[in-house]
Amino acid sequence: MQGLQAAKEKASGLFANKPLLFKNAQYENFHVEQKGYDQMYDGEDLETPPSPDRPPPRHIDKYVRADCPCLSTRYTVALLACFGFSIMFGMRCNMSMAKLKMTEKHNTSSGVKEDTPFNWTVSVESSIDASYFAGYLITQVPGGYFASMYPANKIFGAAIVASAIFNMAIPGAMSVGPAAVVMLKIAQGFVEGVTYPSCHGIWRMWAPPLERSRLATLAFCGTYAGIVIGMPLSGLLTDYISWQTPFYFYGISGIIWYILWLWLVFERPSKHPHITAKELTYIEQSIGTATQAAMPGFFSTPWREFATSPPVYAIIVANFCRTWNFCLLVIFQSAYFNTRFNMQITESGFVGAIPHLIMTSLVPIGGMMADYLRKNNIMTTTNVRKLFNCGGFGLEAFFFVLVAYADNKYVATIELTLGVACSGFAISGYNVNHLDIAPRYASILMGLSNGIGTIAGFIVPIVIDYMTQEKDQLEKAITEWRAVFLMGATVHFIGITIYGIFASGELQPWAETAPPYETPLKSLDQETTFSEKPSEPLRGTEPPAYGSIAPPRPPAPQAHVPNNPFVSGALYQAEPIQPPAQTFEDLTDDGTY
């Protein structure tokens, strides 16, 4: 028995101060410390962890739970955000296909006849294309600021549904005149300008650090999935029904998506009524309290540090370069295949979707690869961001040079597909970098960088329309489109240089939050004294008053009472035991007992 007791004591000493850890294939190793206790909580013994922020279930939750049975809550948020971006970027394809339909040439007995119901000039088309980015630019930084102050999920959802409603109004505005279309496009860009910053505001609350790349890229791949689906779908609806149909289709899709978004997505994990205890604990403990702290006001936001930080400038330049070439492809890719290789509308829509289809699959793969390299300490976060961003930009620039000199539509399609697909790796670089350098200000930085990057989207339609004024003539089209793609490659090479030098993946000093002030606690080796009002000073410890107000003074030290059960987390110490008392006997005559 003594040997068994000794082994038990040895094991107890070995694990006495060890936190309990649990591991699941879906979660990283972590532990949760309960306030006031030295023991650890593993999240298994409670169906719903207590949280003051968690609301009671809504009326609809009594009949249908707000969760997807086959997905965790955070991946449900990512998937719905992906669908939202798909609808938003699909709407951008509606106008380009409608313009091709309205300028379609028909062979008649009297010759070639061009169907131009609105008879817009090149300058009018450029104004309509650029008007969207004028509104998009205005709300970038304000959108990031509001997403940090208010629930980002509500801002994101409201932006998508408002854009969908505006999209359904565009066909009617086209019958009124180009000025009405320009106003609607500005309004559409105005509300969509908050989507990217607010999405970063969502991940500030929902994305564990080692899952930032995969969650963010899963959401952002909807951008390219929207192009993949939007181009051929808009072409089919335009060809077989009417040019107005894509506008109505995507408008209704946006409204349906918004209903699902309101049902399934909440501001933060602690406010979700049906998130599992394990996932809630994992997200909140891995993120910590710094990113969930209250945001500072406008004047206390470190704007000066933003303006003097080289990593911030690296992200801004990368965003500008990426936006330049992305807008080039979204707006003019169908026109390139149509005028350079004489493709029909439906064919050019399908061919134009192929590069974005490949990229849509590579974007989340790149996110998982980036997280794998970081999680296993193979590369630092800084090197991972530089590798993926510069590698993606460099490969796309290389294939753009090949596309510029392509003389065959099949060769051009393959080269463009490879270039655009490889650029998907860059999303795991600059587009997630905000969460690395300043997670607390990620939504504001995203608005700042995306706002300046939007200037490229504002300039591209004007510049490309000016460079391709004679694209209807094949000889001129060859040289004009060659110059367009060579310029796109040059823009990417500039972005590679600046991002490779100045980018960083480390938390910046100005982004760290000051530790909150905590009132010094009484040492655990003192006895806890209870009173009716805990805030009152202990009796007998009031300092003498030298006026009308007696200054407060800490309570006087008290004698240690070990093994106090009322002190949370008190150390249980072994005390010496007084020897047992013996019966007292009188002395005998010889002085002995």
TrEMBL record:
<feature type="transmembrane region" description="Helical">
    <location>
        <begin position="387"/>
        <end position="406"/>
    </location>
</feature>
<feature type="transmembrane region" description="Helical">
    <location>
        <begin position="412"/>
        <end position="432"/>
    </location>
</feature>
<protein>
    <submittedName>
        <fullName>Vesicular glutamate transporter 1</fullName>
    </submittedName>
</protein>
<dbReference type="GO" id="GO:0005313">
    <property type="term" value="F:L-glutamate transmembrane transporter activity"/>
</dbReference>
<dbReference type="Pfam" id="PF07690">
    <property type="entry name" value="MFS_1"/>
</dbReference>
<feature type="region of interest" description="Disordered">
    <location>
        <begin position="514"/>
        <end position="593"/>
    </location>
</feature>
<feature type="domain" description="Major facilitator superfamily (MFS) profile">
    <location>
        <begin position="70"/>
        <end position="507"/>
    </location>
</feature>
<feature type="transmembrane region" description="Helical">
    <location>
        <begin position="348"/>
        <end position="366"/>
    </location>
</feature>
<keyword id="KW-1133">Transmembrane helix</keyword>
<dbReference type="GO" id="GO:0005326">
    <property type="term" value="F:neurotransmitter transmembrane transporter activity"/>
</dbReference>
<dbReference type="InterPro" id="IPR036259">
    <property type="entry name" value="MFS_trans_sf"/>
</dbReference>
<feature type="transmembrane region" description="Helical">
    <location>
        <begin position="312"/>
        <end position="336"/>
    </location>
</feature>
<feature type="transmembrane region" description="Helical">
    <location>
        <begin position="155"/>
        <end position="174"/>
    </location>
</feature>
<dbReference type="GO" id="GO:0035249">
    <property type="term" value="P:synaptic transmission, glutamatergic"/>
</dbReference>
<dbReference type="GO" id="GO:0050803">
    <property type="term" value="P:regulation of synapse structure or activity"/>
</dbReference>
<dbReference type="InterPro" id="IPR011701">
    <property type="entry name" value="MFS"/>
</dbReference>
<keyword id="KW-0812">Transmembrane</keyword>
<feature type="transmembrane region" description="Helical">
    <location>
        <begin position="215"/>
        <end position="235"/>
    </location>
</feature>
<feature type="transmembrane region" description="Helical">
    <location>
        <begin position="444"/>
        <end position="464"/>
    </location>
</feature>
<dbReference type="GO" id="GO:0098700">
    <property type="term" value="P:neurotransmitter loading into synaptic vesicle"/>
</dbReference>
<dbReference type="GO" id="GO:0060076">
    <property type="term" value="C:excitatory synapse"/>
</dbReference>
<feature type="transmembrane region" description="Helical">
    <location>
        <begin position="484"/>
        <end position="502"/>
    </location>
</feature>
<dbReference type="InterPro" id="IPR020846">
    <property type="entry name" value="MFS_dom"/>
</dbReference>
<keyword id="KW-0472">Membrane</keyword>
<dbReference type="GO" id="GO:0030672">
    <property type="term" value="C:synaptic vesicle membrane"/>
</dbReference>
<feature type="transmembrane region" description="Helical">
    <location>
        <begin position="75"/>
        <end position="95"/>
    </location>
</feature>
<dbReference type="InterPro" id="IPR050382">
    <property type="entry name" value="MFS_Na/Anion_cotransporter"/>
</dbReference>
<feature type="transmembrane region" description="Helical">
    <location>
        <begin position="247"/>
        <end position="266"/>
    </location>
</feature>
